[in-house]
Design goal:
The chain is mostly helical and about 180 residues long. Helix content is about 70%, strand content about 0%. Helix 2 runs antiparallel to helix 3 (about 70-85), helix 3 runs antiparallel to helix 4 and helix 3 (about 70-85) packs across helix 5.
Amino acid sequence: MALALFLLFIVLPFLELAVILTVGANIGILPTIALLVLVGVLGSWLCKREGLGVLRRMNATLSEGRLPTRELIDGGLVLLAGALLVTPGFLTDVVGVLLLLPPTRALFRAALVRRFQGRIEQAVVSGTSAGFASAGFGPFGGRTQRIFVDADIVDTTGRDTGPYGFGPAPHTELGPR
């Protein structure tokens, strides 16, 4: 995880800067800035279009009574694509555009499903997340499940009770006068 964060926050910005400087040296500063802005605007439009398409497919799936798992993954990938397109740079723009195109997004989705299939199956079988099961919480390594019940106390005797359902009401005096 530390390696991924190092690559994301240290290496990627330097690579983006190197690519921007190389493109700027070849085509000029103003065309490079114009190209970055153009890709951002076109990417935002495509992101909105694909996001609305994902929402339509999600609603259709829900109306059929099925869980929209594929659509939820697509929605997350479109959201990631939008974030990458907003980030200035050509490398992130390329990955963002690839995530927005349905054929390549399907490849990313399939890779994600393969990557997390084992964790999903483990969570379904044990009824918990993989992190808790491996940490050894509860019997047999699974986290113990708790059930919370929201209940109201109802006095069926007709007596005037206090704010918590027992004892005298605040306006009632205790004992005889």
